[in-house]
Amino acid sequence: MTDLLTRLTEMLDDLDADVDETIDLADEIASSGDAGLLPRLQAELDRALVEQNAYARELLGGVLAAIGGPDTLPALIRASAVDLGDDQDGLAAEIVDLVQADPKTARRLLQPMTEDDDLSVANRADWALRFLP
Q: What is the DSSP letter of 116?
């Protein structure tokens, strides 16, 4: 699976990579459920933020959410708090789905984030909590 993740990151860095193929590969990795990939996925998501790659943030956030579940909410909220000029529809949907799938965990993880020193993070956490059932 690591080879697939390497291939995905290469495709995310390649402006000429086929979009459908890239999405299919991300879906394949996400459906693997391989929790061993979580540290690498987090590192690649962090790199996408540094490089201001909204497309990579969107796809990697989805894979991270699919494999890591609600425990990835803090990472997704922090990633979402970075303004890259995109609409974040996909990432927002992932966050909402995780919040609604496990409200107890979501509240436990997100409530403290509403007091984060970074107001963008605090505001995103507050936004996500609005989707609790």
A: -
∠ CA(87), CA(40), CA(16), 5° rounding?
55
Rounded to 5°, the CA angle 132-78-13 comes to 125
The mean per-residue pLDDT over the stretch 64-88 comes to 96
- H/E stretch holding 7 reads helix 2-13
pTM comes to: 0.93
User: How many CB atoms within 10 Å of residue 99?
Assistant: 23
CB atoms within 10 A of CB 102: 16
Sign of CA dihedral 45, 49, 51, 56: positive
Token pair 């061993």 is found at 36
50 token code pair: 């540094």
